[in-house]
Design brief:
With about 55 residues, this protein is α+β, with helices and mostly antiparallel strands. Helices cover about 25% and strands about 20% of the residues. The protein has a three-stranded antiparallel beta sheet with strand order 1-2-3, covered by helices on one side. The longest helix has 13 residues.
């Protein structure tokens, strides 16, 4: 776990070398603003944005 909400509503998880990573969210319907904010957090930690795939709602 690289980053998370204090209540674990969301978490950014990754392998130690950051080759694979995920953003998990408790809600199936994440707003575009929230998605953008979480991806910016992941980018700031050095996650590779070139392979981002959106799933869910």
């Amino acid at each position: 776990v690289w980053d998370h909400d204090p209540d674990y509503n969301w978490a950014i998880l990754a392998l130690p070398n950051k080759s694979d990573w995920w953003v998990w969210h408790r809600s199936q319907n994440v707003s575009q603003a929230e998605r953008t904010r979480l991806l910016a957090r992941a980018r700031a930690m050095g996650m590779d944005m070139s392979r981002v795939v959106h799933t869910g709602g």
